Amino acid sequence: MNHEVTVTIQADATGKELKLTIEKLLNIQNFLTNNEVLASAIFEILKNFTENFTEPVTLTFAFDPASLKGNQKPVVFY
């Protein structure tokens, strides 16, 4: 994903075979309300089973800190 998003999963985070998909969403108008401003693209990250991972998973999103104004902070929603 051009280094825009990185998913780091420990080898023992699941006992199942993992298939992970990451898709950059292009039609995002319905996600934005109250005049929010995006600091990065919106991604859909899915795995092939419903159970939680047994170990923490790290999601890293690249963004331009200069795009933030004043006391704005970047946040992640799911």
TrEMBL record:
<protein>
    <submittedName>
        <fullName>Uncharacterized protein</fullName>
    </submittedName>
</protein>
